[in-house]
Amino acid sequence: MSKIVTFHRKSPAFFFVLVFLLTVPFWLLNTLVKVKGLPDNLPVADAGATFVPLVAAMILVYREGRLAGVKRLLARVFDYSRIPRKLWLLPIILLMPGIYVATYGLMRAAGLPVPSSWNPPSSLPLIFLGFFVAAIGEELGYMGYAIDPLQGRHTALTSSLVIGSLWALWHIPSMIQLGQPPRLLALGLAATVAFRILYVWIYNNTARCMFGVILFHAISNTGRTAFPGGRRAFELGDAGVGYSLVILTSIAVTAIWGAATLTRSHGSATRPPGDAQ
């Protein structure tokens, strides 16, 4: 079984325990404070909760590598130079917009009442920037801290499923706060796990580039906000069309690139020279 480089001092289990414990105050705050008009109608405290994975990672990295380790972790935000094949920028930038376009077309063909015209919000660049910053808060934790030690012990698919499942559970309080019905909630959780497979696929094929994952994450969230009619329209039919396409894409990626490393390679993935984090 192929392995991704592992860092034995890291503790993914401790990381996730810390993430959930540190998020509890934000979940409680969401039950007390209601603010309307946020992108996707997200609960207000989610703006803070999204940085909990980063905070948890920084705490643990400081314990393991002191301030130098924290600096190395933060420096990975714009590590796009490590991508060995720039062709990978195409799926990073275009895959999710393509899925949203296909979702819209299929929803129209199915007779779902999505708008016939597209009027993206004028604040879309600011929304993207907000989602990019939020993605930094999540991915420097999940991918910057937890993924490598997991892949050192398990296949890329298993590691994706572990992080994806815990990440999905972490989203449940916010999904309930949004009033999502059971079928939409279930599909959203499944799609969350599927997204994590796609993130790990990009990460492993770009020499562990954090910027690529962050950008893909931000584009995914922005695309849902920019969907014709917004998130409300995307979730017509309990988001069965859009989330099913994401799930099917993750299955196709696994089948084509292989569960072992998601890279079409049976050899060990290597770190770029000089990478200590």
How many helices? The count is 10
Number of strands: 0
Major β-sheet profile: none
Q: Percent of residues in beta strands?
A: under 5%
Please give the radius of gyration in angstroms.
18 Å
Residue share in helix: 55-70%
Kindly describe this structure.
- The chain is an all-alpha fold and 277 residues long.
- It has one domain (12-257).
- The protein contains 10 helices and no strands.
- The longest helix is centred in the middle third of the chain and has 30 residues, at 124-153.
- The radius of gyration is 18 Å and the shape is globular.
- The two termini are 24 Å apart.
Short précis:
With 277 residues, the protein is an all-alpha fold. It contains ten helices and no strands.
Features:
0% strand; 277 residues; mainly alpha
Give the helix/strand layout.
Layout (H helix, E strand, L loop, with lengths): L11 H21 L13 H4 L2 H24 L13 H21 L14 H30 L2 H22 L4 H24 L4 H17 L3 H5 L5 H18 L20
